[in-house]
């Protein structure tokens, strides 16, 4: 079968056929090449080819470097959901916030795309043994796919990888080699081993398949956003110049940079096919203790600021030397029509984001993936991301259970029953145990006519525990309601029909029974100085809707309760 693609050298432009066995340009011996397809023909056939294919990774076969579909090794990769994130969106003031749920890959990270495609290419080339170096998730994913394809895998892991991840690699029958040293050392050892034994090694961004695999993220995002935004943005009068939609921002936690490189290539190809009219802004978020790209970008350098000894507990993101991948990204992201943001966040910020995303949207992430969300919070606060931007965050993985360090103290309440060995449960014992669960609850009344903000405030307080919350949407009935509830605190909106927050406050202050109840105002209204003056001394705190974070609301409420 004639291949539908060729490999092009990034340095001299020489075209050559693809084989996983040849890793260098035949002319200039550069190791940096990329796949090229017949875009002119595909512009006519690509969308048609999708019609009959289900929404999974292989639907894009015509733009993937596999010639014979019989070589596909599948565990159900790709085709992950794109969730709208209404609660986080409300908190951040981003109505068009979406989460690409890559946890739903077969081994629970977006590396499944890379492993699925590479293993299919190995099978197509008749290769039966392979080597990977990994910070954890690549090895887990390759281990699963190699097991299925009957390929022997050697996985070189840095000793910083948590034991639970190493065991996950081993369970698939992979040979695990633990290298005491950094990830960059581990890569060198693995490369040397592969070279000596003449075994195929996945070279990350230098290999063809990883970047080709990651570009399917772009295809999926564009396809999924199209119907969602079609209805969501209807009425804004925005003209759709292209059939598929592109987000304004793609945000990812970055280690080696494979994801953003692939996503950029994906959107470039969609542009070549006339399916989208632009590329998204790319937000690259690294951990502070290992941020070679962010640091170099901020200093305007075209070489990465190599980190010799990464200082982070998030070992998944510990690529200290991204090498030329940084330059390739930088070349693309400094073009006039492109937008980019490079940020770094601390391990603690990532852990906090883990809590917030889980409590707000029901999505539990491994810390590496939370880094992207911690980055999102920063970029919104800085004003880099705007309220009307369409934002997609990659929830890149959750390959291991949350560990105790992240959860912190006090996450469990034990109920021990006397004599649980007996068949009949002693009733008094059970009641006594449950009584101990009755904490002192603080009563809070929320007065707000916007059901979305009520939901957000209730969610934030519920997730922290210790509050009994009641709500009222009609401000004219609020006074009576508050009197009946006798709460410890009132959270109120300002803009309400009939009786606004200013009016309600005045009535409360006139009533001796209510005058001393602390009030926190949460409002979408931009206050003029006169309005601010009216609130001075009347309320404990003022929070602007769409700009506060769960921590802010929680701590303001606690302060007001003191
Ligand atoms: C590998 C990985 C990353 C970083 O991906 P790159 O695009 O290669 O930098 C982020 N999150 C998770 C969960 C990963 O496994
Ligand atoms: Zn070349």
Features:
562 residues, alpha/beta, Rossmann fold, 4 domains, six-stranded mixed beta sheet, five-stranded parallel beta sheet, binds pyridoxal-5'-phosphate, binds zinc ion
How does this structure look, described?
This protein folds into 4 domains: 1-72, no CATH class; 78-105 and 213-231 and 241-412, Rossmann fold (3-Layer(aba) Sandwich); 111-202, Rossmann fold (3-Layer(aba) Sandwich), CATH 3.40.50.1100; 441-561, Rossmann fold. It contains 19 helices and 18 strands. The chain has helices at 39-50, 86-92, 111-124, 137-149, 163-171, 183-197, 208-232, 258-272, 292-298, 324-333, 347-361, 367-382, 404-407, 427-435, 451-464, 478-485, 501-510, 529-535, 550-561, and strands at residues 5-9, 15-16, 33-37, 82-84, 97-101, 129-134, 152-158, 175-179, 200-201, 249-253, 281-287, 340-345, 391-395, 442-447, 467-472, 489-492, 519-523, 541-544. Strand 14 (442-447), helix 15 and strand 15 (467-472) form a beta-alpha-beta unit. The protein is elongated. Pyridoxal-5'-phosphate is lined by residues 109, 111, 137, 253-259, 316, 366, 368-369, 396-397. Pyridoxal-5'-phosphate (PLP) is lined by residues 109, 111, 137, 253-259, 316, 366, 368-369, 396-397.
């Amino acid at each position: 079968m004639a291949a539908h693609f060729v490999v092009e050298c990034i340095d001299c432009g020489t075209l050559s056929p693809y084989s996983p066995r040849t890793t260098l340009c035949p002319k200039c011996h550069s190791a940096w090449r990329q796949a090229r397809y017949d875009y002119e023909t595909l512009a006519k056939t690509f969308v048609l080819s999708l019609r009959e294919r289900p929404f999974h990774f292989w639907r894009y076969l015509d733009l993937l470097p596999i010639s014979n579909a019989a070589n596909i090794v599948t565990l159900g990769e790709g085709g992950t959901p794109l969730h709208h994130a209404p609660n986080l969106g409300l908190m951040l003031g981003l109505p068009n916030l979406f989460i690409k749920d890559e946890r739903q890959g077969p081994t629970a990270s977006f590396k499944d795309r890379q492993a699925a495609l590479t293993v299919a290419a190995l099978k197509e080339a008749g290769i039966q043994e392979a080597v990977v170096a990994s910070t954890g998730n690549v090895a887990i994913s390759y281990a699963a796919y190699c097991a299925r394809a009957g390929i022997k895998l050697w996985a070189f892991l840095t000793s910083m990888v948590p034991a639970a991840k190493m065991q996950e690699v081993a369970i698939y029958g992979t040979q695990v080699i633990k290298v005491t040293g950094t990830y960059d050392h581990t890569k060198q050892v693995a490369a040397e081993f592969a070279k000596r034994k003449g075994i195929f090694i996945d070279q990350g961004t230098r290999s063809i398949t990883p970047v080709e695999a990651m570009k399917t993220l772009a295809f999926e995002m564009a396809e999924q956003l199209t119907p969602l935004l079609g209805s969501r943005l209807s009425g804004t009068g925005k003209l759709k110049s292209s059939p598929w939609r592109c987000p304004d921002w793609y945000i990812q936690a970055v280690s080696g940079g494979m994801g953003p490189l692939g996503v950029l290539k994906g959107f470039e190809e969609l542009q070549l096919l006339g399916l989208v009219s632009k590329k998204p802004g790319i937000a690259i978020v690294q951990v502070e203790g290992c941020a070679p790209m962010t640091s170099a970008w901020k200093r305007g350098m075209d070489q990465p600021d190599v980190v010799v000894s990464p200082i982070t507990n998030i070992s998944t993101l510990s690529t200290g030397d991204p090498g030329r991948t940084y330059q390739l990204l930088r070349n693309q992201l400094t073009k006039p029509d492109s937008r980019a943001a490079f940020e770094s966040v601390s391990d603690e910020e990532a852990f906090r984001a883990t809590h917030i995303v889980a409590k707000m949207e029901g999505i539990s992430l491994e810390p590496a993936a939370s880094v992207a969300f911690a980055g999102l919070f920063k970029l919104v606060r800085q004003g880099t991301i705007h309220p009307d931007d369409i934002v997609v965050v990659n929830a890149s993985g959750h390959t291991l259970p949350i560990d105790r360090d992240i959860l912190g103290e006090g996450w469990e309440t034990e109920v021990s029953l006397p004599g649980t060995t007996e068949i009949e449960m002693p009733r008094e014992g059970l009641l006594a145990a449950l009584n101990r669960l009755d904490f002192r609850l603080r009563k809070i009344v929320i007065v707000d006519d916007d059901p979305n903000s009520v939901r957000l405030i209730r969610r934030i307080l519920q997730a922290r525990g210790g509050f009994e919350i009641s709500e009222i949407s009609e401000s004219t009935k609020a006074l009576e309601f508050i009197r009946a509830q006798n709460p410890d605190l009132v959270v109120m909106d300002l803009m309400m029909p009939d009786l606004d927050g200013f009016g309600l406050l005045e009535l409360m202050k006139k009533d001796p029974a209510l005058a001393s109840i602390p009030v926190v105002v949460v409002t979408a209204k931009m206050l003029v100085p006169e309005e601010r003056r009216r609130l001075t001394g009347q309320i404990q705190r003022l929070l602007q809707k769409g700009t506060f974070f769960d921590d802010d609301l929680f701590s303001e409420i606690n302060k007001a309760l003191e």
